Predict the 3D structure of the following.
Amino acid sequence: MSFRIYNTLTRSVQEFTSLEPGHVRMYTCGPTVYNIAHIGNFRAYVFEDLLRRWLQFKGWRVTQVMNLTDVDDKTIHGSREAGVSLADFTAPFKKAFFEDLRALNIEPAEYYPAATDHIPEMIELISRLMEGGHAYQSEDGSVYFSIDSWPSYGKLARLDRAGMRSGVRIHSDEYDKENVADFALWKAWDEKDGDVAWDSPWGRGRPGWHIECSAMSQKYLGASFDIHTGGVDNIFPHHEDEIAQSEAANGQPLAAFWIHCAHLMVDGQKMSKSRGNFYTLRDVLAKGYTGREVRYELIATHYRAALNFTMASLDAARVSLRRIDEFTERCKAAAGDVAAGDLPVWAQQAAQRFEAAMDDDLNVSAALATLFDTIREGNSALDAKKLTDAEAAALLALFRKWDTALGVLEKPAATVPPEIQALLEQRQAARAAKDWAQSDALRAAMAAQGWLVKDTPKGQVVSPA
Ligand code: AMP
Ligand code: ZN
């Protein structure tokens, strides 16, 4: 079955093929590390993870690059306000980002290049644009890309060339479609930059945001690769500008597929730092939700549909996950140590429907509907004692296979905190000494802290209440 996905470049769903057989090279615009990423940002990273996992499910090897933007207008501004060096300012946000990736069960990319480690590559790329007549230095020392020099400028965002103000310059990294103009590749130092500056053929300064991704994608993936992703807000100007820089310098298409996810919304507006309507993953975890529940909520809506974030939708995710867990527990109990046999016919059909749904532009809603149909059928078969142990084991294997793509079905083992671990050991000793009163008191002490202890033939088993 072939995988079809929506390409923003052609505005159509296309069959995916990789440039190199069996190997997909994919670039994802990563976080700007000037704050803790919000869950809107994580909608993009979770969608990219689903895409990566689906490519792997289909048999491709994936090389994914996710950059860290650790020098730009926002990081410099933040470090100046905090009165610390740029590196000291961004370091804790980088660390927090990787913690959040783990909490959301996002598979690590192969490379996480940081912009500040790739200034020479950026300078080299800008030099080539200068030589090719695609860039010029202005009176203030900054270097700009000349959109007039590149006739296909605007092809991704479908800009109207008539409205472009070529020769007019825009200095900031972010701007809207009303201000299409020559954009900055290299920004000459000014006092707002403090001590953030590198030497270049055009004097001291620092790179613009867009050139960072062009330089880093080329270094790790080559001049032409398969997939470039981000949220829809990246289409213009960021991805448009990346295409212009890279294609003008290299004379070949930057990426074959441009894939963008819709926004995570709050009350009809994009969740964003500047609107102040954002939650970080930490905010949501502090309310008692888990990373798994957040991941479920973020993947359960098709990536191209706007998703409204509410606590009620997290509660719904919790209910769905509970149904999944109850079913897999039932199958585990039925399967015991029995080896997996053939799937019942209805589950074989479900496996095909699941794959067909995901192959259809990652139609995860249809894939999850199939998963819940499977649970319903499976539960009735278990109720009617019509499921053999080997079939129960095969269903578990099917869920494990689906989970290589979804990353949300397997219940992560709860980590038992050290203080509960200590109580368990004391209780073990009390029971060995047949001190039942002490054993019950310790059980009550753990229950008071939210942990339930069961005594099984294999010993004590503890789980969160
Ligand atoms: P930034 O750190 O602003 O460059 O954003 C990092 C990534 O998050 C980019 O791919 C953005 O497109 C994406 N993003 C930002 N806000 C949202 C949102 N509310 N919903 C989905 N993706 C978003
Ligand atoms: Zn980027």
